[in-house]
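User: Sequence recovery, please. Input:
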């Protein structure tokens, strides 16, 4: 024990000598600096001091190691002393003592939250000796087996002895020789009697043991060596206590960055005194009593005033003394807290020692960790400090505030400049990219446009050359074997096609084109826009196979080979564009497999294309197949297929047209033309507004003049002047001015539309009317108006043929054509033929070839009762009426003579049963037939009935066709999917019978497929009502003829 005390004194003496030598060296250095130039520093003095320090440390290294370990040795049991053998211990460093050579960035900064909580709990148990688990925890962690005080009795006192001899004396810090040498202490330290060995406090108990952890801070630059080093630079009088702290910090910086002290191998002399577990406890007292009474934890709260800690403050000195063994981490935290208070100019902050120690023990502050929140958590007035720090600009009121403000301003300004420059550069880059991409797209579009123009120009040239060939060889071609490629394409504009529902089915309403095979020299290739099911294919195969039976009138006749002369193809592109409403020509253009199939079918044969409404893709398909097109150029058809273009053709042909004006594109022009027309034709009560480019009744509106209050006054003016003078401008001027004033209000309030499916109001109609252009025409001034349609064929050679003619059937109150009766009985045949020939020749002069559909109206003039015929519309293309006419002619094997207005049916050949082989057959006289047909029948309930059930229902009600009598009903089916529309043809010996049969069939079908609560959407009822009106007119005309 005495040796240990002496060793501690010697170590302390060595440290004092080193300190004195360093002080002398410092004074020498100061003298050299003050002395005159030319004097040099004696380096030997510094070298001698360093040598003496090294010799002293080497001499007492082993004794100093024993002092640092401060282990408590436990003597073995006396009874078992003889049984134990002496073993030489081998030094094996623990894994924790091996230095971590990894870079600092790969080292773990702190423990996990669970480990921190466990360490804090263990530390509280170590500070509480009275806890039941204190003894177990010390033995488990430090290898110290404390006696069990509760089970200790007098009989087992000698069982195990504890070596309580102190390893280091109570005065281990300062040697006995220099205890009387009072260092420069502050008054508070003098009051604490630190320098007086006689007035020292009694030795602390064994409960003052604490873990001594050597941790190298993350930021260990010389500028942060210690709080009191910075304070020493600001003060001229440095006391001895600060020098000790500085020496401790400087020596701490040179230690390796490990968590434990690397211990050299123990000697044999000290082997019996070293325990097996790692030594981490540093006793503060020379005695280690078995009983460890609890020591109350003191609370030493001190203040930080104006960012400074008073080192002489009583509370701070007591706190420093209490936690001197773990002072390194605490000093680092205090320095950081002091620096924070200085930077934010906090006038007063109260530090709680317990919070600071607890925060240090959690490891949050290790390696420079822990933010402002962790540091402020150790303050008792942290709310006040936090509110003060949160004030705007508070950082710039503290230490270095001007510099921080300048740096912040400079950084903000530089950031603003950099951000502005970056955004400017980004905008320029974006603009450059946009310009480049736009230019590339423009160039690409230009190249594509030029390529398309060149392709279309080549296709147009090829079309013209083939059209010349077709015109030169038409007579030979029309009488030889040929193949007709039917493409029922509706080449409307994209806007019109997208506005139509069921556009693909609408294009397939001309399945009657298949009946062209009634000519034995014709083969038909029908391009269908929809996929037909097996039921439809079977139906048309059976229907077209009846040609032989129809010609002979014998159902037992062998089916003709006509079923082998037609082919139905569906372009594969319809699957890729199901909702684009493309016309058939466009679908066929993008269907290479179908094009190859057609090429194979027409190879080595004469063929040409018969399209529907002309489209640009018709030329592409014809150029791909290498065949001509029986039709005009798409540009010519677009020019003359409008309402205004039709008026120009009619005018040039010398055909009567209704009063009106075409090519109207401005609102003022519309008002002026309508006012002038009203003034010139006061007898007209309704005026029609037809939009160019529209079809049917979609683009037609009307306005009645009867809503004008001054119309009677205008009629009086007209009667006063008479028809001859009324043509003069001076006679019309007052009425014209009045009309011009009233026309805008009249149209705004009384203009109406026939069909609101596309244009719901007059405003929307007027907008498109002025954009597309249109005409203003007079409605016939009569109560009885009949409309008829004539289909013409303008051959490439210039000849014009009338293919069909029929009176139109309309829905009541609408101009929508839903059917017709054939042949027409409204106009004199000679007059009709003359009009058609003139119109056909005018079309041929304008290179309009192929199939045309001419609409006429007829009425009786009120004054003279003369029949007037006006040409009102011209549609370029294959019409639904012509398709249904082909089916009618196929089923009757008859011919339609438009010159005579008669549907002639050949007589039946009847052989006598007795002498069928010997007698000549008897031929019946030629008979005539009348037909009523429609391809636009619509009923939503038809989709709930399959075609097989539908035909069974018709058969039960005797709805069918009699081949022998060549009369009855024939259906034209359109699709297999929706099954909402169909076509119907009824043939009868007289017109009245045909009309009544047609109405009767519609009524039966409607009753069979409808229920009282499920009527569905249909046009059956309106058509039946219109047929009844026509029947009434027919009966009235028959009575007039009889009376005459």
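Assistant: Recovered sequence (1044 residues):
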């Amino acid at each position: 024990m005495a040796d240990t005390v002496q060793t501690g004194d010697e170590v302390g003496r060595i440290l004092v000598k080193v300190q004195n030598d360093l002080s002398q060296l410092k004074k020498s250095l100061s003298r050299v600096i003050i002395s005159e130039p030319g004097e040099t520093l004696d380096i030997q003095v510094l070298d001698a001091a360093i040598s003496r320090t090294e010799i002293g440390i080497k001499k007492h290294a082993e004794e100093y190691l024993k002092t640092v370990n401060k282990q408590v040795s436990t003597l073995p049991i006396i009874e078992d002393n003889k049984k134990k053998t002496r073993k030489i211990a081998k030094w094996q460093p623990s894994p924790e003592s091996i230095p971590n050579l990894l870079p600092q960035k790969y080292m773990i900064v702190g423990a996990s939250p669970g480990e921190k909580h466990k360490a804090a709990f263990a530390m509280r148990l170590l500070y509480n000796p009275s806890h039941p688990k204190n003894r177990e925890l010390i033995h488990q962690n430090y290898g110290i087996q404390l006696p069990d005080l509760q089970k200790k009795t007098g009989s087992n006192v000698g069982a195990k002895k504890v070596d309580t001899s102190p390893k280091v004396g109570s005065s281990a810090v300062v040697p006995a020789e220099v205890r009387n040498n009072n260092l420069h202490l502050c008054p508070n330290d003098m009051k604490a009697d630190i320098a007086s060995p006689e007035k020292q406090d009694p030795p602390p108990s064994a409960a003052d043991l604490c873990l001594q952890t050597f941790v190298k801070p993350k930021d260990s630059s010389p500028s942060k060596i210690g709080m009191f080093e910075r304070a020493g630079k600001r003060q001229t009088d440095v006391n001895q206590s600060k020098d000790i702290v500085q020496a401790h910090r400087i020596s701490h910086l040179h230690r390796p960055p490990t968590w434990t002290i690397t211990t050299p191998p123990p000697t044999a002399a000290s082997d019996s005194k070293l325990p097996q577990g790692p030594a981490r406890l540093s006793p503060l007292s020379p005695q280690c009593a078995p009983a460890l009474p609890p020591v109350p934890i003191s609370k030493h709260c001190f203040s930080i005033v104006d960012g400074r800690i008073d080192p002489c403050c009583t509370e701070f000195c007591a706190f420093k003394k209490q936690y001197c063994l773990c002072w390194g981490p605490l000093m680092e935290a205090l320095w950081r807290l002091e620096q924070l208070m200085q930077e934010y100019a906090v006038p007063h902050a109260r530090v709680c020692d317990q919070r600071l120690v607890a925060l240090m023990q959690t490891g949050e502050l290790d390696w420079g960790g822990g933010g402002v929140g962790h540091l402020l958590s150790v303050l008792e007035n942290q709310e006040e400090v936090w509110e003060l720090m949160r004030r705007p600009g508070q950082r710039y009121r503290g230490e270095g505030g001007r510099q921080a403000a300048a740096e912040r301003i400079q950084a903000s300004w530089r950031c603003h400049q950099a951000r502005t420059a970056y955004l400017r550069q980004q905008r320029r880059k974006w603009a450059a990219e946009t310009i480049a991409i736009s230019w590339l797209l423009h160039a690409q579009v230009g190249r594509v446009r030029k390529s398309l123009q060149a392709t279309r120009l080549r296709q147009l040239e090829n079309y013209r050359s083939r059209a010349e060939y077709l015109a030169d060889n038409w007579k030979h071609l029309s009488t030889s074997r040929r193949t007709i490629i039917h493409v029922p394409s509706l080449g409307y504009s994209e806007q019109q096609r997208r506005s139509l529902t069921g556009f693909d089915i609408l294009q397939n309403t001309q399945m009657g084109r298949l009946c062209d095979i009634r000519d034995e020299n014709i083969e038909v290739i029908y391009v269908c826009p929809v996929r037909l099911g097996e039921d439809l294919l079977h139906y048309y195969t059976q229907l077209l196979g009846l040609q032989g039976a129809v010609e002979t009138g014998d159902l037992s006749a062998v089916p003709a080979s006509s079923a082998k002369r037609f082919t139905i193809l569906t372009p594969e592109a319809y699957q890729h564009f199901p909702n684009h409403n493309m016309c058939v020509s466009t679908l066929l253009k993008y269907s290479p497999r179908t094009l190859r199939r057609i090429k194979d079918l027409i190879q080595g044969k004469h063929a040409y294309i018969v399209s529907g409404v002309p489209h640009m893709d018709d030329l592409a398909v014809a150029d791909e197949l290498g065949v001509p097109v029986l039709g005009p150029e798409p540009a010519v058809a677009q020019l003359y297929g409008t309402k205004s273009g039709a008026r120009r053709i009619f005018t040039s042909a010398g055909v009567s047209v209704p009063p009106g004006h075409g090519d109207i594109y401005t609102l003022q022009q519309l008002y002026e033309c309508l006012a002038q027309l009203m003034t010139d034709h006061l007898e007209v009560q309704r005026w029609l507004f037809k939009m160019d480019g529209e079809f049917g009744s979609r683009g037609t509106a009307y306005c009645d003049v009867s809503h004008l209050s001054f119309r009677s006054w205008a009629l009086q003016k007209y009667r006063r002047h008479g028809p001859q003078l009324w043509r003069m401008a001076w006679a019309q001027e007052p009425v014209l001015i009045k009309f011009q004033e009233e026309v805008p209000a009249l149209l705004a309030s009384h203009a109406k539309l026939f069909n609101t499916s596309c244009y719901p109001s007059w405003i929307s109609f007027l907008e498109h009317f002025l954009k597309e252009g249109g005409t203003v025409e007079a409605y016939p001034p009569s109560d009885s108006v009949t409309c008829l349609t004539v289909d013409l064929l303008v051959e490439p050679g210039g000849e014009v043929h009338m293919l069909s003619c029929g009176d139109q059937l309309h829905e009541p109150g609408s101009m929508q054509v839903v059917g017709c009766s054939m042949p027409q009985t409204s106009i004199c045949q000679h007059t009709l033929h003359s009009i058609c020939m003139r119109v056909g020749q005018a079309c041929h002069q304008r290179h309009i070839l192929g199939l045309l559909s001419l609409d006429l109206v007829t009425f009786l003039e009120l004054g003279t009762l003369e029949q007037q015929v006006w040409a009102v519309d011209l549609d370029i293309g294959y019409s639904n009426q012509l398709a249904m006419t082909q089916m009618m002619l196929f089923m009757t094997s008859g011919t339609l003579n438009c010159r005579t207005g008669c549907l002639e049916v050949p007589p039946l050949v009847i052989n006598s049963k007795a002498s069928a082989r010997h007698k000549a057959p008897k031929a019946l006289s030629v008979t005539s037939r009348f037909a009523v047909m429609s391809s636009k029948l619509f009923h939503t309930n038809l989709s709930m009935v399959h075609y097989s059930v539908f035909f069974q229902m018709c058969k039960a009600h005797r709805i069918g066709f009699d081949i022998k009598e060549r009369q009855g009903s024939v259906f034209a089916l359109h699709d297999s999917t929706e099954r909402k529309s169909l076509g119907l043809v009824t043939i009868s010996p007289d017109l009245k019978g045909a009309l009544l049969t047609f109405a009767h069939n519609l009524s039966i079908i409607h009753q069979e497929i409808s229920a009282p609560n499920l009527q569905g959407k249909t046009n059956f009822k309106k058509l039946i009502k219109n047929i009844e009106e026509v029947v009434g007119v027919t009966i009235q005309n028959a009575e007039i003829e009889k009376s005459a």
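The mean pLDDT is 78.
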